[in-house]
Amino acid sequence: MPELLDLHPKPADMRALVIEGLSRNPKQLPAWFLYDAEGSRLFELIGEQPEYTLTATETALLEQQAQAIAAALGPGTLVEFGAGSARKVAPLLGALRDPAYVALDISAEHLAQACGRLQRQFPTVPMLGICCDYTQLQQLPPHPLISGSAHLGFFPGSSLGNFEPDAAIALLAQFRRLLGPGGQLLIGIDQPKAVERLEAAYNDAAGISAAFALNLLQRLNRDLQGNFDPEAFRYRARWLPEASHIEMALVSQRAQEVDVAGQRWCFAVGEALITETSAKYSPEAFVRLAAAAGWRGQARWSDGANDLSLHLLVQAD
């Protein structure tokens, strides 16, 4: 069984972030709050819905291009940020020469299951799981699996889209620091497409996306003594062209007061609590964004419809 390190934020840290987020206008909480054990399970189900093509497209692209990507990356320890189910990394572990694997994720239970399943698939690959909020991690913890080897960052799922542009640049710069000198980053980026496709992807007919968002309220009730009534909120996903992103929110259906994190909060009828956003970047726009964080585009692989890109970034001189 792979070793697990628990660096999960303390409840007090979550309380401070909730107070900060609910004090904003509009109200917005960090996207990682969505990923408790149940949220992580629901997110995996979203990837299986016919409207949400990103997961299948990226998985197929990784399988098709694994050998070419491995050749471009070279040897080293593969560090996956936001590993989730850790299914997408399998083709790379199968193609890399003498790999080691470090998985970072916010849900300890989900991380343990994912690493255990992956270790059974690759019994000779050294593995380490780190439960943490990778957006706040100042450095990779000291560990023999991390020290003394080249670090190959892996950030699939177009998760960078959950961050506003300035925050996305800051995160890419943080990845550069975490990976260290000579570190590389393989990152999946979803690209703009028809509005109808985008909105359907985040509001599937089966209602899994809505359940995923509403689970946030259940987590706040459980972990921070909240009294949210999920029935009093409606899920909404819409494309905002001026921001080039999908905005996902829980909209209050009535004027109400909610207690959470030791304080009382007022919601007006129609007021939105933004749960996450998902920005879409053209290849050119993403390379410009990465350059602002000190990265240079080295290679790019795309699916046949040019819906999604895998970018290999190297550190700029």
Mean pLDDT across the residues is: 93
And the CATH topology of the domain at 54-193 and 281-315? Rossmann fold
- In sequence order, what are the helices and strands, one letter per element? EHEHHEHEHEEHEHHEEEEEHEE
Termini separation comes to 40 Å
Percent helix:
25-40%
Annotation field: number of helices: 9
User: Percent of residues in beta strands?
Assistant: 25-35%
C-alpha-based Rg, rounded: 19 Å
CATH superfamily of the domain at 54-193 and 281-315: Vaccinia Virus protein VP39
Number of beta-strand segments = 14
The low-confidence runs, each spanning 5 or more residues with pLDDT under 50, are none
State the CATH class of the domain at 54-193 and 281-315: Alpha Beta
Structural summary, described in words:
The strands form three sheets. Strands 1-5-4-3-6-7-14-13 form an eight-stranded mixed beta sheet, sandwiched between helices. A four-stranded mixed beta sheet has the order 2-12-9-8, covered by helices on one side. It is globular. The longest helix is centred in the first third of the chain and has 20 residues, at 54-73. The chain has a domain at 54-193 and 281-315: Rossmann fold (3-Layer(aba) Sandwich), CATH 3.40.50. With 317 residues, the chain is α/β, with parallel strands linked by helices. Helices cover 35% and strands 26% of the residues. A hairpin with a 5-residue loop joins strand 13 and strand 14 (308-315). The N and C termini lie far apart (40 Å). The chain contains nine helices and 14 strands.
